[in-house]
Amino acid sequence: MKNIAKFLFIAYTLAIIILSFLPSNPTVAGSDKLTHYFAYLVWAVFYRYAFNAGYWNIFFASILLGGFVEIVQYFLPYRSGEYGDLVADIFGSLSGMFLYFFSEYGIKVKKYGSKI
């Protein structure tokens, strides 16, 4: 199961990168920040589940991935790199980490009761 999760994480990461470098669709420009937010929320959950990565590792990896994408977009003539997108990426990954943490913690509390 973990190998499938790792494959899905890598495929999802590649999808984020490829879709970030394609020309943007101006009809959905208003939801740009929400798209970044939810894409990185899912990315962080996949990363944590697939590799059991630490939260700091996920946090810094999301900064590196989001920063890389925004820097490359800055140099593409049909895209624009924005700080707001990077902020949405980071907040999305933080939300994904909190979501994973609290769901994991809730499962442990349900399983072990108040002994944690």
The domain tally reads: 1
Number of E strands: 0
Percent of residues in beta strands: under 5%
Q: What share of the residues lie within helices?
A: over 70%
Report on this model:
There is one protein chain. This protein has 116 residues and is mainly alpha-helical. The chain has one domain (2-18, 31-115). It is built from four helices and no strands. Helix 1 packs antiparallel against helix 2 (32-51) and helix 3 (55-75) runs antiparallel to helix 4. The longest helix has 30 residues, at 83-112. The chain is elongated.
Task: List the topology elements.
Elements: H1 2-21, H2 32-51, H3 55-75, H4 83-112
Helix pairs in contact: 1-2, 2-3, 2-4, 3-4
List the main descriptive attributes of the protein structure presented here.
116 residues; mainly alpha; 4 helices
